[in-house]
């Protein structure tokens, strides 16, 4: 884990946006196109807005999601709606967007469709909850062991959170580790305490600990006060 601290969320968002844009540009230079997976929630909004303003050949970028609630695309809790509103603007509007949920009619059908068009990301920007979940790998979820299995060949799985609303589709830990550059963006003293505890104690009670304590793919943590 490589830890980067910032005095404000705005400063962290700007630096992270520049770094992610540089990573994507490097991949485009090598391969001609790049895949970016981002997280939802309210915390990533400054980062998404900063990234949309970065100068990049956005037409060669495919944007997808780390996880998604199985809700209609215009639902207030839709991560896809958040990405459309804050990242697919300005230059970012030229990116190709592949959401994980289309009409939210059937979880199994949505999962199968998302898996069929899935491409392993070149850059992944994760978040973390106060309970230590990352992506939609929640403590006490019925299939958490499957989600955390580093040998799982599946890229995505359906998750029913024990407490949070809505069934989710989420990247598995194995697919996160198979991806390219990994970032974790968090803010506040409480999340820093969660991060520090999870970096010392490997436990399903804090799923993010399995990401923090692996050595397969370096994790770059951007924390803002």
UniProtKB/TrEMBL annotation:
SUPFAM superfamilies: NagB/RpiA/CoA transferase-like (SSF100950). It is an enzyme of class 3 (hydrolase). It holds the Pfam family Glucosamine_iso. The keyword Hydrolase applies. It comes from Vogesella fluminis. It comes from the Bacteria. Keywords: Hydrolase. The lineage of its organism: Bacteria, Pseudomonadati, Pseudomonadota, Betaproteobacteria, Neisseriales. PANTHER family: 6-PHOSPHOGLUCONOLACTONASE. The keyword Mitochondrion does not apply. Belongs to the glucosamine/galactosamine-6-phosphate isomerase family. 6-phosphogluconolactonase subfamily. This is 6-phosphogluconolactonase. Hydrolysis of 6-phosphogluconolactone to 6-phosphogluconate.
């Amino acid at each position: 884990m490589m830890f980067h601290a910032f005095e404000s969320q705005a400063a962290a968002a700007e630096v992270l946006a520049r770094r992610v844009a540089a990573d994507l540009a490097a991949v485009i230079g090598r391969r001609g196109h790049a895949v970016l997976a981002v997280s939802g929630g309210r915390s990533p909004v400054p980062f998404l807005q900063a990234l949309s303003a970065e100068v990049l050949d956005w037409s060669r970028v495919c944007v997808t999601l780390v996880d998604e609630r199985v809700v209609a695309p215009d639902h207030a809790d839709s991560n896809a709606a958040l990405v459309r509103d804050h990242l697919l603007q300005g230059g970012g509007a030229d990116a190709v967007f592949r959401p994980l949920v289309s009409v939210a009619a059937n979880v199994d059908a949505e999962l199968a469709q998302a898996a069929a068009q899935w491409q392993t990301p070149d850059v992944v920007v994760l978040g973390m909850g106060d309970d230590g979940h990352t992506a939609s790998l929640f403590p006490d979820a019925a299939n958490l062991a499957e989600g955390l299995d580093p040998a799982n060949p599946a890229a995505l799985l359906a998750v029913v959170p024990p407490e949070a609303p809505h069934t989710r589709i989420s990247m598995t830990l194995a697919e996160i580790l198979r991806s390219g550059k990994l970032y974790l963006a968090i803010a506040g003293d409480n999340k820093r305490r969660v991060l520090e505890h999870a970096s010392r104690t490997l436990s399903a009670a804090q799923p993010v600990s399995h990401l923090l304590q692996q050595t397969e793919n370096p994790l770059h943590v951007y924390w803002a006060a």
